[in-house]
Protein backbone atom coordinates (compact mmCIF):
# COMPACT_ATOMS: atom_id res chain seq x y z
CA UNK A 1 0.00 0.00 0.00
CA UNK A 2 1.10 3.52 -0.77
CA UNK A 3 0.54 6.54 1.46
CA UNK A 4 -1.25 9.60 0.08
CA UNK A 5 -1.91 12.95 1.76
CA UNK A 6 -4.99 15.04 1.01
CA UNK A 7 -4.42 18.74 1.73
CA UNK A 8 -7.57 20.86 1.71
CA UNK A 9 -8.26 24.53 1.24
CA UNK A 10 -11.75 26.02 1.39
CA UNK A 11 -13.51 29.04 2.76
CA UNK A 12 -10.18 30.74 3.46
CA UNK A 13 -8.86 27.89 5.63
CA UNK A 14 -6.07 25.42 4.83
CA UNK A 15 -5.72 21.93 6.30
CA UNK A 16 -2.56 19.87 5.78
CA UNK A 17 -2.94 16.10 6.03
CA UNK A 18 0.09 15.09 8.11
CA UNK A 19 -0.97 11.46 8.66
CA UNK A 20 -2.06 10.48 5.17
CA UNK A 21 -4.07 7.47 4.05
CA UNK A 22 -2.82 4.09 2.80
CA UNK A 23 -4.28 3.24 -0.61
CA UNK A 24 -3.27 0.72 -3.29
CA UNK A 25 -2.64 3.17 -6.18
CA UNK A 26 -3.01 6.66 -7.63
CA UNK A 27 -6.43 5.82 -9.11
CA UNK A 28 -7.79 5.09 -5.63
CA UNK A 29 -6.19 8.31 -4.35
CA UNK A 30 -7.97 10.25 -7.11
CA UNK A 31 -11.27 8.56 -6.20
CA UNK A 32 -10.73 9.44 -2.52
CA UNK A 33 -9.98 13.07 -3.40
CA UNK A 34 -13.26 13.27 -5.35
CA UNK A 35 -15.12 11.82 -2.34
CA UNK A 36 -13.62 14.47 -0.05
CA UNK A 37 -14.43 17.32 -2.44
CA UNK A 38 -17.96 16.00 -3.02
CA UNK A 39 -18.67 16.03 0.72
CA UNK A 40 -17.48 19.63 0.97
CA UNK A 41 -19.65 20.64 -1.99
CA UNK A 42 -22.66 19.01 -0.30
CA UNK A 43 -21.93 21.14 2.79
CA UNK A 44 -22.01 24.24 0.58
CA UNK A 45 -18.31 25.01 1.05
CA UNK A 46 -16.88 27.36 -1.56
CA UNK A 47 -13.56 27.73 -3.39
CA UNK A 48 -12.40 24.19 -2.63
CA UNK A 49 -8.99 22.76 -3.48
CA UNK A 50 -7.81 19.25 -2.63
CA UNK A 51 -4.13 18.63 -3.35
CA UNK A 52 -2.97 15.01 -3.33
CA UNK A 53 0.64 14.32 -2.33
CA UNK A 54 2.62 11.10 -2.11
CA UNK A 55 4.57 9.99 0.96
CA UNK A 56 7.60 12.03 -0.19
CA UNK A 57 5.56 15.23 -0.51
CA UNK A 58 5.43 15.18 -4.31
CA UNK A 59 2.25 16.87 -5.49
CA UNK A 60 0.41 14.45 -7.76
CA UNK A 61 -2.86 16.21 -8.56
CA UNK A 62 -5.25 18.90 -7.49
CA UNK A 63 -9.02 19.07 -7.69
CA UNK A 64 -10.53 22.53 -7.52
CA UNK A 65 -14.14 23.68 -7.34
CA UNK A 66 -14.79 27.34 -7.99
CA UNK A 67 -18.46 28.12 -8.32
CA UNK A 68 -19.97 25.60 -10.74
CA UNK A 69 -16.63 24.63 -12.30
CA UNK A 70 -14.61 21.59 -11.23
CA UNK A 71 -11.09 21.04 -12.49
CA UNK A 72 -8.56 18.29 -11.96
CA UNK A 73 -4.97 18.47 -13.01
CA UNK A 74 -1.57 17.06 -12.31
CA UNK A 75 1.00 19.29 -10.68
CA UNK A 76 4.74 19.50 -11.11
CA UNK A 77 6.73 18.68 -8.00
CA UNK A 78 7.66 21.96 -6.37
CA UNK A 79 10.47 22.40 -3.88
CA UNK A 80 9.31 23.18 -0.38
Number of domains: 1
Q: Please work out how many helical segments DSSP would assign.
A: 1
The shape is globular
Largest sheet: 6 strands, antiparallel
What structural category characterises the helix and strand content? alpha+beta
Rounded radius of gyration (Å): 12 Å
Strand content: over 45%
- Secondary structure: number of strands: 6
Write the H/E string, N to C. Answer: EEEHEEE
Low-confidence stretches: none
The first-to-last residue Cα distance is 25 Å
What percent of residues adopt helix (DSSP H or I)? 10-25%
| Overall average residue pLDDT | 88
Topology (elements, then pairings):
Blueprint: E1 2-10, E2 13-15, E3 21-23, H1 26-42, E4 48-54, E5 59-66, E6 69-74
Antiparallel strand pairs: 1-2, 1-3, 1-4, 4-5, 5-6
